[in-house]
Amino acid sequence: MVANALWGWLNRWKKANWQRRGKPIWDAEIWQDIATRVERLTVKVRHMNAHVSKSWANEEHRNNEQVEKAAKVKVSQVIHNCETCAAIKQAKRVKPLWYGGQWLKYRYGKAWQIDYITLPQTRQGKHYVLTMMEATTGWLETYPVPHATAWNTILGLEKQVLWRHGTPERIESDNGTHFKNGLINTWAREHGIE
């Protein structure tokens, strides 16, 4: 029932040039991608048939097993390709600033730890994620980029940290070239960041 409804919507939206009642479909490119994939997909519907022969019941059972296996593979692929999932998984490995049983002297939002993680390249060309973790709570912000550069570091900090949480007093990193160079140092000095 759900598959039939979805296929009906996708066909109607496609015929209407990805609009409904003259308004564009929200995130149309995602729905277009789904429509392209579903057109070529063999869908096996799972339901219960009562009072059927043993051979028919066995065939239904085999079909249901195939559907479950295919669904597990698809879900695994989606999770593997998800930038946010990868950043969260990586961030769980990072330890916040905790020394001697207490947090450092910073209040919320005043100290951040940053690093880049590498991901499989996305369709949008993003290959790295700038991870920015607030030091007192472990709150994570992420910013996917095509290259780990000083300029992308500044953009990520401005869009994800400064704009949302205010200007921090301190930013800690592994001192890689995308974190410690003239461009970053000038930007940090202009913003009063240690």
Automatic annotation (TrEMBL):
Spell out the molecular function terms from Gene Ontology.
nucleic acid binding
* Biological process terms in GO annotation: DNA integration
Entry-linked PROSITE patterns: INTEGRASE
InterPro entries with a match to the protein in the record: Integrase_cat-core, Retrovirus_Pol_polyprotein, RNaseH-like_sf, RNaseH_sf
Q: Which domain of life is it from?
A: Eukaryota
Domain Integrase catalytic: where? 92-194
* Pfam families named among the record's database cross-references: rve
Kindly provide the name given to this protein in its UniProt entry.
Integrase catalytic domain-containing protein
